[in-house]
Write a structure and sequence with these properties.
elongated; 1 helix; alpha+beta
Length: about 60
Amino acid sequence: MESQIMASFKVTLKADLKRGSFYWVSTVEASDADEAVIAAEHLFMAEMENSADWNFSDSDIEEV
């Protein structure tokens, strides 16, 4: 059995919603980019269970 080499990936996921866009940025360990996306999605779903505890720590504001 051949072992897979794991690497760290910074993954940014974007969801376009009716009232705006939501970005999820995480760092994961995976063997390739496809697995990194899946790992990031799983981390996001785990965090959704604690969404009542979320606080925004940064913002970028532009007048339009």
